[in-house]
Amino acid sequence: MTPELPAGLVSHIDRVVVLAGQIARRHDADSARTLLAAQGHDLLRSLAPAELLECAERLGIEVDPVERAEPVLLHGPLGALELRERFGVRDERVLHAIRWHTSGHPDFDAEAWAFFLADKVEPEKLRAWPALERVLRLALASGPRALEAAALAYLDLSIDRGGREGWAPHPMALRTRDALAEVERTP
Q1: pTM above 0.90?
Q2: pLDDT at 184 over 90
């Protein structure tokens, strides 16, 4: 099922790996775990939408209506399965981070947040959407909740943009955003 990765996607993955390593080191996160997630996250990103849907249905993955409308959202769950089955990745934390890397997840650890944020604010994405600069600053800031604050800022921007542009956010992105907002309100 693993396709040949286009050069542009390989470049994106390389940029994410570099930035994920920087963010992980800044927050004393496990760099090896963070980098493994960054390296494997877009393994199936170049599959056609119909193929993503067909694979998910064949493997018994429950497909949310938002994912059905935007099958590219399935590349994370399918990629995590591919990494486990075909490449022997057994680290559940890595697989969890990859599975939910498009939306985030309320129980992400520091390694997953470091990788998630690097994927969202790597230099090319930052150039295309300058509002992400604040997210990058937060991700590189010190403090016990800096990664969560950066993720909340990203999800707020993304959900707002989706509303303006007419696309529905993934339900897990909404759940993650709400969980992060609750943590922010906790002293």
Answers
A1: yes
A2: no
